[in-house]
């Protein structure tokens, strides 16, 4: 029989007030519509571990799409429903999202099959999950709000810091769980359960990855590269021979580990300075894994993993252009020349090049471009140029660019008047030259 424990207090401590109010409201709606509602999975796991996670997944014992539509209507929110899977996403006016899924109530039985053991739909839903730590649920209905539901010993395993599968065929059923197990083990610094570890090793030995669609493996690899420290996950992938099973020709040596480490530092620096959401940090790590392989080999790997065209393009740029760029950045060049060179490349290429080089000064030049050169603007504007009697035309762009380069090379001061004096000087020189 399931064990219950109340964690209302934890919810109150950990959630922003408006989120707490929202999930209470959802519990009340559930009462109103006569269904049971539960928060499940990663949110509950991370709540217990004290880790911030506001990805709310709700399971409804009943039709989640109908429920989500009603919630959306009441909350003046948008709803996207996926009727085929009976799931829905509600997007609230402030942009916050909640996913709803239906716990399967109907039971498909073969004719003449033995009657199935009567099981709560929620339990059946949770039974299909990967690890015990992901099977916890919190009931939201008012009368039992905050009840922790633990059918599979997830709470114990969180306390014991163990990753455990739910049944012996789990890795056979879905080998991508091998990648997930090592990712979660690394992230939480949990160990694999003894039985789980044994079955994982057997699954790897049997080369079960060959039976999985490439894009599902790629999805999990991407999740690994988006972790805080992919190096530690890949160490585990190598240890359990998962890496060689997916990429037989890739050697996980000191050189690659060092590159992973430098990429991490560059990414931390970049995130600290900029909040650019679109940067594909994951592809820097993937590039680091692939670099050194022949392009033919790389193509085969990317084909096998069904890597999307957009990702392939970024990867190709990274792998083709970063080393070229590093060769071109040399001590003979002025900063403005390096500026002109590197401004042609995608940000991912620059971050990869900055990680790839073992020469500190080259890394600093590239990071300086990202941090300041590319934002450099002369104090002088087009209007100022008009005011000193210049006719607008392509010359304006040339003058302003020249000022920018001189600023990057620290050859002219920041002061606007002095910059204008420099412009006048430039024009005089031009005229002298033209007369000759
Ligand atoms: P993260 O913090 O990385 O987002 P998560 O637990 O939310 O972790 P997701 O990959 O978003 O992970 O998956 C959501 C839930 O779906 C998980 O809690 C897990 O139980 C379940 N799940 C995902 N992939 C699988 C799988 N391959 N097999 C079984 N269950 C899975």
CATH architecture of the largest domain: 2-Layer Sandwich
In DSSP terms, counting alpha (H) and pi (I) runs of 4 or more, how many helices? Answer: 22
Compute the separation of the termini in Å. 98 Å
Question: What is the CATH domain class of the largest domain?
Answer: Alpha Beta
Averaged pLDDT: 92
CATH topology of the largest domain: Beta Polymerase, domain 2
Helix percent band = 55-70%
Count of strand segments: 10
Task: Please state the structural category.
Answer: alpha+beta
Poorly predicted sequence stretches spanning 5 or more consecutive residues: none
Number of domains: 4
* Strand order in the sheet with the most strands: 1-8-7-2-3-6-5-4
Q: How would you name the CATH homologous superfamily of the largest domain?
A: Beta Polymerase, domain 2
Radius of gyration: 29 Å
Bound molecules: adenosine-5'-triphosphate
The 3D shape can be described as globular
Give an overview in words.
This protein is of the alpha+beta class and 436 residues long. The chain folds into four domains: 3-160, Beta Polymerase, domain 2, CATH 3.30.460; 161-246, Orthogonal Bundle (Hydrophobic Seed Protein), CATH 1.10.110; 252-374, cca-adding enzyme, domain 2; 376-435. 56% of the residues lie in helices and 10% in strands. It has 22 helices and ten strands. It has helices spanning 8-14, 17-33, 42-49, 64-75, 121-127, 154-160, 170-173, 176-188, 194-205, 214-225, 230-239, 242-246, 254-273, 281-290, 295-304, 309-328, 335-342, 347-356, 360-371, 382-387, 394-408, 416-435; strands at residues 3-6, 36-40, 56-61, 78-82, 87-91, 97-103, 137-139, 147-150, 162-163, 191-192. Strands 1-8-7-2-3-6-5-4 form an eight-stranded mixed sheet. A two-stranded parallel ribbon has the order 9-10. The longest helix is centred in the middle third of the chain and has 20 residues, at 254-273. The radius of gyration is 29 Å and the shape is globular. The protein starts with a strand and ends with a helix. The model has no long low-confidence stretch (mean pLDDT 92). Bound molecules: adenosine-5'-triphosphate. Adenosine-5'-triphosphate binds next to helix 8. The site of adenosine-5'-triphosphate has 9 residues, from helix 8.
């Amino acid at each position: 029989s399931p064990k219950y424990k109340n964690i209302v207090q934890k919810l109150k401590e950990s959630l922003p007030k408006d989120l707490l109010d929202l999930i209470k409201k959802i519990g009340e709606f559930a009462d109103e519509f006569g269904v049971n509602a539960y928060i499940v999975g990663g949110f509950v796991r991370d709540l217990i571990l004290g880790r911030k996670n506001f990805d709310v997944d709700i399971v409804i014992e009943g039709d989640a799409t109908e429920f989500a539509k009603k919630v959306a209507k009441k909350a003046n929110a948008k709803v996207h429903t996926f009727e085929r899977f009976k799931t829905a996403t509600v997007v609230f006016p402030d942009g916050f999202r909640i996913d709803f899924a239906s716990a399967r109530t109907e039971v498909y039985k073969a004719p003449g099959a033995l009657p199935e053991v009567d099981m709560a739909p929620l339990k059946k839903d949770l039974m299909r999950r990967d690890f015990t730590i992901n099977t916890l649920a919190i009931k939201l209905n008012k009368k039992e709000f905050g009840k922790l539901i633990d059918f599979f010993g997830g709470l114990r395993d969180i306390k014991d810091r163990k990753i455990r599968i739910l049944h012996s065929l789990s890795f056979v059923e879905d080998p991508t769980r091998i990648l997930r197990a090592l990712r979660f083990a690394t992230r939480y610094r949990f160990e694999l359960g003894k039985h789980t570890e044994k079955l994982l090793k057997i699954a790897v030995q049997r080369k079960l990855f060959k039976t999985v669609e490439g894009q599902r493996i790629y999805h999990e690899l991407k999740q690994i590269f988006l972790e805080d420290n992919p190096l530690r996950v890949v160490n585990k992938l190598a240890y359990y021979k998962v890496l060689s099973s997916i990429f037989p020709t890739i050697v996980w040596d000191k050189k690659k580990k060092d590159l992973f480490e430098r990429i991490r530092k560059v990414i931390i620096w970049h995130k600290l300075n900029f909040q650019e959401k679109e940067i594909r940090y994951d592809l820097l790590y993937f590039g680091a894994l692939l670099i050194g392989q022949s392009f033919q080999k790389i193509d085969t790997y990317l084909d096998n993993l069904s890597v999307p065209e957009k990702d392939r393009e970024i990867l190709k740029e990274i792998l083709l252009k970063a080393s070229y760029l590093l060769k071109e950045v040399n001590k003979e060049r002025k900063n403005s020349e390096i500026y002109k060179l590197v401004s042609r490349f995608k940000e991912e290429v620059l971050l990869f090049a900055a990680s790839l080089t073992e020469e500190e000064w080259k890394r600093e030049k590239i990071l300086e471009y990202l941090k300041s050169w590319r934002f450099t603007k002369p104090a002088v504007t087009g209007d100022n140029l008009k005011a000193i009697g210049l006719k607008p035309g392509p010359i304006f762009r040339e003058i302003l660019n020249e000022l920018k380069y001189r600023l990057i090379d620290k050859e002219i001061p920041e002061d606007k008047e002095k910059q204008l004096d420099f412009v006048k000087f430039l024009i005089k020189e031009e005229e002298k030259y033209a007369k000759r």
